[in-house]
Design brief:
Strand order of the largest sheet of chain A: 4-5-10-6-7
Distance between the termini of chain A: 46 Å
Distance between the termini of chain B: 52 Å
CATH superfamily of the largest domain in chain B: Beta-grasp domain
Largest sheet of chain A: 5 strands, antiparallel
Number of strands of chain B: 6
CATH architecture of the largest domain in chain B: Roll
Radius of gyration of chain B: 16 Å
Number of strands of chain A: 14
CATH class of the largest domain in chain A: Alpha Beta
Radius of gyration of chain A: 18 Å
Shape of chain A: globular
Order of helices and strands of chain B: EEEHEEEHHHH
CATH class of the largest domain in chain B: Alpha Beta
Number of domains of chain A: 3
CATH topology of the largest domain in chain A: Uridine Diphospho-n-acetylenolpyruvylglucosamine Reductase, domain 3
Number of helices of chain B: 5
Shape of chain B: globular
Oligomer: heterodimer
Strand content of chain B: 15-25%
CATH architecture of the largest domain in chain A: 2-Layer Sandwich
Number of helices of chain A: 11
CATH topology of the largest domain in chain B: Ubiquitin-like (UB roll)
Strand content of chain A: 15-25%
Number of domains of chain B: 2
């Protein structure tokens, strides 16, 4: 690891101001990706700005929306009574990220800001049509996820919370890589009144995306049988040593079927 | 205090019931702090990539991988390492269960396994074997001695039930 200084601002405004001072400054929340990256010298910073004293971990109901603070850990989200009651699919998703020790440190804000193409949260936030609150503005999920490890966040902008509407039914299903446990394909399905929204992680060459073929098929009837003849093009899907693009295309339909079935059991 | 360009920060930590005030460079890993500054070498570093779990400790009662956290981030916290579990010569019930069920072979993963397992069974005396296996997914045993590790954790949970 290259050397750096560690700062502990006590408010998010101070953190944002420290971040804006230099390109060599970086924000750290749980550090479950950033610390390994620094250890491998894949990244170098002059100053790390820790958000642990900024108080951003509250989970609450904000009118109709479930509002989760950026510093809420995966363990806190998965065990929160409010989340389990209002949006159980989010609690279940959070309970399967990484392992117990990663869930004890990793945060929702950190996961979204990193936008790993195999991360679970981006699929949920995009499928639910969430809003990402930052130190500067509110960003719709559609505009937030830009490309692999790339978001709409500006250099000196920090996520403060995420707001999620309550779906009529929702579930997430992932096919974990047998070794890394990251999603080789993860599908989040959400049903609102007359709208179906389906987002896929782990598969797209440009990161998380909405899958219109599955959304259209599920509009006829929100049941796994609606997907029995559904096929998805492998164009734009990742191929790597773990899975070819056409295998991922097949997994997307299968995970979507399982997610729909799971959502009906709630 | 400035040492060259890099800050040295004084951290105050309670480790296994003893308070420590130490100067650390900001980029020192918590696992290195525990092993090299405090000489508590029961916490192991296996993979150094946050996968194997040999470095698991408790911070304020919560299990974390100390190779993926900085010492400055633990300032002000209450830490328990494997050395803090036994009461003199009396083993912690989880250690006793590993002893009785042959839950260790080479022993390298054992400190992390035990620290993870204690959090895992807390408040769950009726935990199932499947839950134990899933709950220990962040800990790897290169001897592949999982059968007896799972058995040990199961037995320790039963002891808690009594």
């Amino acid at each position: 690891m290259y050397s750096f200084n560690y700062l502990k601002p006590v408010s998010i405004e101070d953190a944002a101001s420290m971040l804006s001072e230099s390109d060599e400054h970086k924000v750290i929340s749980g550090g479950m990706t950033l610390i390994p990256t620094l250890k491998q010298r894949l990244a170098r910073v002059e100053r790390l700005i820790g958000l642990e004293k900024c108080g951003l971990s509250e989970i609450k109901l904000d009118g109709e929306l479930l509002k989760i603070g950026a510093m809420a850990t995966h363990a806190e989200v998965s065990e929160s009574d409010i989340v389990v009651m209002e949006n159980p699919a989010i609690a279940e998703l959070a309970s399967h990220i990484g392992d117990r020790q990663v869930r004890n440190r990793g945060t929702i804000g950190g996961s979204l800001a990193n936008n790993d193409p195999s991360a679970c949260y981006p699929a949920a936030i995009l499928a639910l049509g969430g809003i990402i609150h930052t130190t500067k503005r509110d960003i719709n999920a559609e505009e937030f996820f830009v490309d692999l490890f790339e978001t709409a966040l500006e250099e000196d902008e920090i996520i403060t919370a995420v707001s999620l509407p309550k779906p009529d039914a929702a579930a997430y299903e992932k096919f974990p890589n047998p070794a890394s446990r990251y999603a080789m394909v993860g599908v989040f399905v959400a049903k609102f009144n007359s709208e179906i929204r389906v987002a896929v992680t782990g598969a797209g060459e440009e990161g998380v995306f909405r899958c219109s073929e599955i959304e259209t098929a599920l509009l006829k009837a929100f049941s796994s049988e609606s997907l029995s003849d559904c096929t998805i093009s492998a164009d734009g899907l990742m191929s790597d040593i773990h899975a070819e693009a056409d295998y991922r295309a097949h997994l997307i339909v299968e995970m979507a079927k399982r997610a729909v079935t799971k959502s009906a059991r709630r | 205090m400035i040492l060259g360009e890099i800050d040295v920060t004084q951290v105050t930590l309670m480790v296994n019931g003893t308070q420590h005030n130490e100067d650390v460079s900001d980029y020192m890993l918590l696992a290195d702090f525990i092993r090299e500054k405090l000489k508590l070498t029961g916490t192991h570093v296996g993979c150094d990539t946050s996968q194997c779990g040999a470095c698991v400790i408790h911070i304020d009662g919560i299990s974390v991988k100390s190779c993926t956290m900085l010492a400055v981030q633990a300032d002000g916290s209450n830490i328990t390492t494997i050395e803090g579990l036994a009461d003199g010569d009396v083993l912690h019930p989880m250690q006793q269960a590993f002893h009785e069920n042959h839950g260790l072979q080479c022993g390298f993963c054992t400190p992390g396994m035990i620290m993870s397992a204690i959090e895992l069974i807390d408040g769950k005396p009726d935990i199932s074997e499947a839950e134990i296996r899933q709950g220990l997914e962040g800990n790897l045993c290169r001897c592949t001695g999982y059968q007896n590790i799972v058995k040990s954790v199961h037995e320790a949970a039963k002891v808690e039930r009594r």
